[in-house]
Specification:
Layout lengths: L4 H16 L15 H16 E2 L7 E2 L2 E8 L5 E9 L17 H9 L2 H6 L10 H4 L10 H15 L3 H18 L3 E3 L5 E3 L3 H10 L3 H9 L2 E4 L2 E4 L4 H31 L7 E7 L11 H31 L14 H8 L6 H9 L6 H12 L6 E2 L6 E5 L4 E5 L3 H6 L4 H8 L4 H6 L15 H6 L15 H17 L22 H10 L2 H10 L3 E4 H8 L15 H11 L7 E3 L3 E4 L3 H31 L1
Antiparallel strand pairs: 1-2, 3-4, 3-9, 5-6, 7-8, 10-11, 11-12, 13-15, 14-15
Length: about 625
């Protein structure tokens, strides 16, 4: 985390839009008068405002993963773009540590929005006046939230957001802030009641629902018992958890709607042939207290590192064997499957499956879950350890050993929503709020946990479960991750390794042991080793002949048929290339590192000579004709 993945992602996208954009024709402009390339670049400040936050390691940390597809037409120009998002960190909306912040947009909105907008949404305080932004840092050194808000609004205008659409997003932010300021207290019977109504009245006004209906839904919701509906009073703790879950759900649904709106602005109906995808996802995390969210992030990174290892070390060497190149297979000892199995296996049951199982047990607690996990894995896997005193467990990841605290895991995994409230929101008088909860409108979802699979990603994760079936956060996380891995496995991957220079967020300082540790655990040193020993560059015979025959034009006779492999062999002989620098496979020529780059430089020089000669002849002909 904090190594520079998001910044490098921006550089890659800037590069692609600069070299492949249609910068000349009027047809390239959109309805907003901006080019598609400008809209693609403008998507980033929007996503950063709503999806990034300050963490202990990083002042602008992405708290979600994104796969950005830049689509190209047959001419090689950008023809559209699409953003898929993964693994959004919902708990940050309601809970942050003292050294971190909530999502940037809350502070930008409160400090930078016009007074008229804030008055309309009943926002009359700064970040220090609202529960969900008060208990953490308010500012980031060197960052002006007011200026960042202006950048956000300009980016939304470029992307085609109308003023009403922008205000809809700000409405959700205001509602979440009011939600956090609601105060409850317990009666002698341990029932929760509202301590004062001001924050609740503001919330209901902003959301377009009735106060009486809302308070009844929060404090005394109706639940189905058999065929009948019964009213159930709630304890103070239940109400507080319910309100927090609603705030998280609302923000995540708004984020999904935001990404969908950006995608519709960047979408083009036809003319697409290929795409380049850029994946930017949350980095490996080790905090003072590591909870369920850190397990999800670190499990994701474990899967991605395994994908890197398999691509770099296994598939690379398998291709040498397939192509008939003499090669001694090297085992780099970097198989991460035992750790992945420990987390996601179903038989024997892994951490996530065990957690899902406990979530449906009537009397299960975080303690029973932890004890069950110890019984399954303690002393049976060298990747798992049970701590002597703390309630939790330790997993040996590829990057480091991490101790996880299991406090609150069952509640986080279930992430239940109060359907009485969500039905109210589905029938809100505010169209955008009603749209966010349309799957609950008019009581469509009738079972506990209904709509849970929708809240994660706006119905983006396909599921075979019937509508309203209960789905845990862990299950949805695995579904999203499996979709992502399927996407990556269908592409030709390239890797940009980002290395954290120091843990102090300081420029110009290199912590050598920290850098070396990252290089070792990321497989970079082994990657260098296999690159030096192997043949990292390869090119099919026919393409090699077409591209490099210009360097030895008379080597291959024109009147006689010569197959592409023989032609490639003759060209390499004509180049007088050392045989240690290349190998001929069944379908491709394989080169040592750097050899293909040298050939490209020689080709550039040769092409320059030909072009200069052609220009001289053309100018001579033009001069003589005058």
């Amino acid at each position: 985390s904090g190594a520079g993945k998001t910044e490098n992602t921006k550089k890659v996208i800037q590069f692609l839009t600069a070299i492949a954009g249609d910068h000349k024709t009027a047809a390239a402009l959109t309805a907003t008068g901006c080019s598609l390339e400008q809209q693609i670049l403008s998507a980033n400040p929007i996503l950063e405002s709503f999806g990034n936050a300050q963490t202990i390691r990083n002042n602008n940390s992405s708290r979600f993963g994104k796969f950005i597809r830049i689509e190209f037409n047959f001419a090689g120009q950008i023809a559209g773009a699409n953003i898929e998002w993964y693994l959004f960190e919902k708990p940050r909306v309601t809970n942050q540590s003292k050294q971190e912040r909530n999502y940037h947009v809350f502070y930008q909105f409160m400090k930078g929005a016009d007074k008229s907008v804030k008055d309309r949404l009943l926002i009359d305080k700064g970040p220090e006046g609202y529960t969900f932004t008060r208990k953490c840092r308010q500012t980031i050194q060197g960052v002006d939230d007011r200026a960042e808000f202006d950048t956000l609004v300009a980016a939304m205008a470029t992307t085609g957001f109308k003023t009403e659409e922008q205000n809809d997003l700000f409405r959700v932010l205001a509602a979440i802030l009011h939600m956090g300021n609601m105060q409850f207290q317990a009666t002698r019977n341990d029932e929760a009641v509202l301590r004062e109504q001001v924050a609740a009245e503001k919330l209901c006004h902003v959301l377009g629902i009735q106060l009486s209906d809302f308070t009844r839904a929060v404090l005394r919701p109706s639940i189905k018992a058999g065929r009948d509906w019964v009213t159930q009073s709630r304890t103070l703790q239940q109400v507080l958890l319910s309100v927090e879950a609603l705030a998280r759900s609302m923000y995540e649904r708004m984020f999904g709607a935001l990404v969908s709106r950006i995608n519709s602005a960047m979408s083009r109906p036809d003319g697409k042939s290929t795409f380049i995808g850029v994946l930017d996802i949350a980095g490996f995390e080790i905090l003072e207290v590591n909870s369920f969210e850190q397990l999800c992030i670190n499990y994701t990174n474990e899967r991605l590192q395994q994908f890197f290892n398999r691509t770099m070390f296994v598939l690379e060497q398998e291709e040498y064997t397939r192509e008939g190149i003499e090669w001694n297979f090297i085992d780099f000892g970097m198989d991460l499957q035992p750790t992945i199995d420990l987390i996601d296996r179903t038989k024997p049951i892994g951490v996530m499956s065990c957690l899902d199982e406990e979530c449906v047990m009537p009397k299960a607690t975080d303690k029973t879950f932890t004890e069950k996990l110890h019984g399954l894995w303690a002393n049976k896997s060298d990747k798992y350890e049970a701590p002597r005193f703390a309630m939790g467990f330790t997993i040996k990841h590829y990057a480091s050993q991490v101790e996880y605290s299991t406090e609150g895991w069952l509640e986080k995994n279930k992430d239940p929503l109060n359907e009485n409230v969500t039905r109210l929101l589905g029938n809100s008088s505010e169209p955008f709020i009603a749209q966010l909860y349309s799957d609950y409108a008019d009581g469509q979802s009738g079972t506990p946990g209904g709509g849970n699979d929708v809240s994660s990603s706006g119905t983006r994760v396909p599921t075979t479960l019937k509508r309203g079936a209960f789905r845990t956060v862990g299950q949805r996380h695995k579904d999203q991750l499996n979709l992502l891995m399927a996407q990556l496995n269908s592409t030709q991957p390239h890797f940009v390794r980002c290395i954290l220079p120091n843990s102090e967020k300081r420029a110009g300082k290199i912590d050598t042991p920290l850098v070396l540790d990252q290089l070792r655990c990321n497989g970079v040193l082994e990657g260098i080793r296999i690159t030096r020993q192997g043949f990292p560059n390869r090119i099919p015979f026919l393409e090699f002949r077409q591209r490099y025959e210009i360097l030895a034009p008379n080597t291959i006779p024109r009147q006689v048929f010569v197959d592409s492999k023989q032609a490639a062999s003759k060209l390499l002989e004509a180049f007088k290339m050392d045989k240690a620098k290349y190998r001929l496979g069944h379908t491709k020529v394989f080169f040592r590192a750097g050899v293909l780059g040298e050939l490209e430089e020689i080709r550039d020089v040769e092409l320059s000579k030909i072009i200069v000669q052609f220009q001289a002849m053309a100018r001579g002909a033009l001069s003589r004709s005058r």
